Structures are given as structure tokens and as C-alpha cells.
Amino acid sequence: xxxCRSCDAEIIWxxxxxxxxxxxxxxxxxxxETCPNADQHRGKSRASGGSSTAIAALETKIEDVLGRxxxxxxxxxxxxxxVTDLETxxxxxxxxxxxxxxxxxxxxxASGSDD
Length: 115
Hints:
The chain has one helix at about 50-90, and strands spanning about 10-15, 20-25, 100, 110. It is of the alpha+beta class. The protein folds into 2 domains: about 1-40, no CATH class; about 50-95. β3 and β4 form a beta hairpin.
């Protein structure tokens, strides 16, 4: 009879509906419920080397993407503040943003003209 590699208890292996194998105690209960080291064995996958490893890798990638989004949002906010500041400065200097100056009557004169 096989024994648990962690606690050395006698176990039996039962095939699951999905074709995997689950350790059972001799009384038919799940060995994961009684093994003191059950957490070491949960979530392991033969194909991927452990689903917990795959989840951790995805969490790392998500954190990286969220960090990049946060940096981009901060850059966008800083740029928006600078644009607003430049617009305010241009209005304060009496220009309309295309290089012409505003006269008191509202008619503009082209910049750089020697008239």
C-alpha cells in the first residue's frame, strides 16, 4: 500500500472525473483534510509544473501592466497641466495662439510684419 510522501500515512489513490488522481485515507476521506502538509501538495499540475506558479507569474505580469498604466496616467496628467498652463500664458500675453497679437479693438496683426 502506498504512503503519503509528507506524513507517511497509508493512502489509496482515486481517479477523479477529469482523469487526475486524488489521495484518500483508508476510510475513504480526502487525505488533504488530514495531512498536516497538505498545502505543499495542493494546486500542483503535472503539465505546468504547478498552477500556483502559473498564477504567480500572471499576478506579476498584471502588477507590471498596472504599474505602466499608472505611470502613463501620471504622465498624461502632467502633460494636461502643462498644456493648461501654456494656454493661460498665451491668453495673458494677448496672443490667440497662431502668432498674431490682439489689438485693443480685436483685430490682429501678423507677427513679423514691418508695417
